[in-house]
Amino acid sequence: MERAFTPLDCLLPTGNLKFCLLILNQSFDKGHFHCLWSKAALRACADGGANCLYHITEGSQDSFLPDYISGDFDSIQPEVKEYYKVKGCELIETMDQDLTDFTKCLQILQKKIEKKGLQIDVIVALGGLGGRFDQTMASVETLFLARNITPFPVIVIQECSLIYLLQPGKHKLCVDTGLEGAWCGLIPIGNSCESVTTTGLKWNLTVNRCHITSHHMHQEKQLFPSTNQVLKFGTLVSTSNTYDDSKIVTVETDKPLLWTMAIKR
Asked: For the whole model, what pTM was predicted?
């Protein structure tokens, strides 16, 4: 069955997607924050994500109280923790060091969604793609773990980037919100993808050939013959791609495949 999804619908004031918001411990700008916050069915912070929320809402913190804050609390600033505690926000300490605060916060979020009977379409994580590279990779790892935590798709947004893990099968991505930036990509992290086909991209992966751009090599297009359509590091990774004029991207993959795209600022 083809899965249809509009990744940037959550950033539209008139968007139709229902979602929960999870704020991570990396700074983000106010560009999309207010829209996400106002539309979210439930709002949570993963440990130091509370610091980011506290400082970005300086002067109006009382109007931006999360439903809960979870983590091992090694990142949240003492004064921030005390502020939200006094305001009645739920503080949930999670000491498991084998999982990141993002993953643990997602586990709690899913339980609260079930308990409250929330009808949502997606979980949006804000932050997680900037700063330290190891933390960025930890965000990607959480997307893989999320398959066994929640039935809802999880997207991660920060500034001008979005990532979303495509599960094996057929996907229809609508890219017609007007918020899409110029670039997009398909990254085979965690495994090789032995069979990938796409439509709607300027350089599609097709049955008989793969196309990829490489601006660093000052080439407009490179052609890679590939009978098995393998996407993997050391063979082919589709980066610096862009869209055709169809406003719809379809992807069929045999393994989990990371979709990334630009967001206009």
From this structure: 0.89
Per the structure block, which two tokens stand in for 84? 């939200």
* Higher-pLDDT residue of 27, 154: 154
Cα distance between residue 256 and residue 43, in whole Å: 27
Non-local CB neighbours of 190 within 8 Å, separated by 6+ positions: 140, 144, 256
DSSP annotation of 207 reads S
Sheet of 154-158: strands edge to edge? 90-93, 68-71, 43-46, 19-23, 122-126, 154-158, 161-166, 257-263, 180-187, 238-241
Work out the average pLDDT over 118-123: 97
Q: Of 135, 139, 183, give the one whose Cα is nearest residue 157.
A: 139
**Of 17-31, 109-123, 129-143, where does the model show the most confidence?**
109-123
Whether 241 and 213 have beta carbons less than 8 Å apart is answered as yes
Distances (CA, A) of 131 to 36, 105, 115, 182: 22, 20, 34, 22
Q: Are 245 and 185 in contact (CB under 8 A)?
A: no
Which residues have a Cβ under 8 Å from the Cβ of 178 and sit 6 or more positions away?
264
Q: Return phi, psi of residue 112, to 5°.
A: -70, -35
**What are the distances in angstroms from CA 5 to CA 171, 173, 248?**
8, 5, 10
Q: State the pLDDT at residue 238.
A: 86
Residue 98 has pLDDT above 90, yes or no: no
The Cα-based distances of 29 to 53, 90, 122, 235 in angstroms read 10, 25, 21, 36
Say what the alpha-carbon torsion angle 104, 110, 115, 116 is, to the nearest 10 degrees: 120
Q: Which residue has the tokens 């990334």?
A: 260
